[in-house]
Amino acid sequence: MTDNDYREKRNHCRLKYLVADLGAERVAEKIEAQTGALLRGGEEVTAPWNYGRFYGIHAQKQPGLCYVGVHVKNGHIRAGDLRAFAELAERFGQGRLRTTNSQNLILLDIPEGETEALLHDAIFKVYPTAPGFFTGYASSCTGNAYCNFAPIETKNRLHELTAALDKAFPEVGQPLRINLTGCFHACAQPQVADIGLTGGRARVGEAVVPVYTLMIGGHLGEESAFARPLEGRVADDKLLGLLEALVQKYLALREAGEPFYATVARTGLESWQSVANQYTIA
């Protein structure tokens, strides 16, 4: 990136710009010009894609042992709570914990006969092993708490929205992933979410308020596809109403076992845009 002046401007200092301008193959050639030949390919060991979530009790490869996946709200955990998890890992397992790329936690090496006793600990009321299908699968960037590019707060706002959706739609029955990113850099990857939100600020009436653009239908895995944008922007006070309307439409249209992204792909974008038009501003 330095050789091509991509570090000259901070808002252009992203590998994605280099790939967009030169193409993936040319970028690979430039990397290998410095590193030498790199191994290609390999065995696929990640399918099926599970969003990087490992909630609940799962058997380990080692006979008789389990790992337990825990949801960490907003990816934030208090030091005292982390110490408590470490003590549980020592008491019930072999003292091992892992974090995940979805900013959650895993306790390892729990004997099969000890999982019930482990889950009786009060800490699992704060950090559940079976979170809601909205709160447990949402992702956000750090927002304006730690990033100068983001003009809005993201983590707490996304949790407020998804907690409200969990309460309103207990019958949804399967994950519906909402990703909220605070600026155009898209660190929360809205392009691969069922519903992707990109935040900004704009004048609405007499006030400057948070506003969002939306895209829907993104997915990774065997049926991978980028989310497609909906036209218009929605102000913060209308956002929950729009999300509820989109989920209601999904529940009305989905076929048995059909996830949100598949319903969008099957029904086309036009009818979803008509829902968004009732909430968006110019």
Keywords, separated by commas or semicolons:
282 residues, alpha+beta, 5-stranded mixed sheet, 4-stranded antiparallel sheet
Describe the protein's architecture and organization.
- The chain is α+β, with helices and mostly antiparallel strands and 282 residues long.
- It is 30% helix and 19% strand.
- The protein is built from eight helices and nine strands.
- It has helices at residues 15-22, 24-35, 79-92, 115-119, 155-168, 236-253, 260-267, 270-276, and strands at 56-59, 65-70, 97-99, 105-111, 139-140, 178-181, 195-204, 207-216, 228-235.
- The strands form two sheets. Strands 5-6-7-8-9 form a five-stranded mixed β-sheet.
- A hairpin with a 5-residue loop joins strand 1 (56-59) and strand 2.
- Helix 1 (15-22) packs across helix 2 (24-35) and helix 5 packs across helix 6.
- It is globular, with a radius of gyration of 21 Å.
